[in-house]
Amino acid sequence: MNKILYALAVVAAFTSCAASYNVQGSSSVSSLDGSKLYLKTIKGGELKNIDSCDVVHGQFHFVGVLDTVRMATLYMDDESIMPIVLEDGSISIHIDDASQRVSGTPLNDLLYQFIDRHNQLSNEMNELGHRQNQMILEGIDEEEIDRQLSVEAARIAREEDKLVTTFIVDNFDNVLGPGVFMMITSAYRYPILTPQIEDIMSKATAKFKNDPYVRDYYQAAQTNEARMQGLDDTGTPQQPQQQPPLVSVPQQAGQQK
């Protein structure tokens, strides 16, 4: 009997020390009330539900044991709502009509600081359209409008490029680097090589390069680049009629459209 009790005590001790996530959520969006929410992530190359709960009077709650820190996405049915890092600790989600935010743990705080700044730059770029209309109404010459706004648009684009690249490079060896890489590349119909992606990959650590999504995307992008240049996978020139279709990468959890 003593041996059995000892064994149970050991199991309980290990269980109590296991990492776990605890997500407390609140929402003022009326359409979410009464809905079922899901946490989805990639396991074995497939998008899978790992947890679910109902929204009751604007409140929802997820709790579970972690085998590893991972990026996940909050879904309502098949609609992606927002990314979240599942890590040890108490995680807070707040959703309203103006914003969505995850906080309370180190990687989530870091992720949403990045998202906030990225959204600011996106808003600045969108505001250029309003400024153009206002300048036209003020009778400013169209060439002068184009000159001013082109300079401003180029500045915002450089800041956005630097923000994304720096964030990914700084987080190569945790889940945020591959996660944000996935977000930015999901905007492309097919995997492509841009100067930004080439710059990121030239600096990448082995861990980042071996992330399944990063590895598959980069291989597919290199193949597509060769095919668009009329080469086969070995670098040999092809006849135009023999050029195969571009390679795609399967849709993954956490991709933001």
What is the structure about, briefly put?
This protein is of the alpha+beta class and 257 residues long. The protein has helices at 2-17, 106-137, 142-170, 176-185, 195-203, 206-209, 212-228, and strands at 20-27, 36-43, 46-54, 59-65, 70-76, 79-86, 89-95, 100-103. Residues 3-16 and 252-257 have low confidence and may be disordered.
SSE layout and pairing:
Layout lengths: L1 H16 L2 E8 L8 E8 L2 E9 L4 E7 L4 E7 L2 E8 L2 E7 L4 E4 L2 H32 L4 H29 L5 H10 L9 H9 L2 H4 L2 H17 L29
Parallel strand pairs: 1-7
Antiparallel strand pairs: 1-4, 2-3, 2-5, 5-6, 7-8
Helix pairs in contact: 2-3, 3-4, 3-5
Inertia-based shape? globular
Terminal residue distance: 58 Å
Range of strand content: 15-25%
Counting DSSP E segments of at least 2 residues, the number of strands comes to 8
- Poorly predicted ranges: 3-16, 252-257
Query: What's the average pLDDT?
Result: 85
Descriptive account of the structure:
A hairpin with a 2-residue loop joins strand 2 (36-43) and strand 3. The chain has 257 residues and is α+β, with helices and mostly antiparallel strands. The chain is 46% helix and 23% strand.
Keywords:
single chain; 257 residues; alpha+beta; four-stranded antiparallel β-sheet
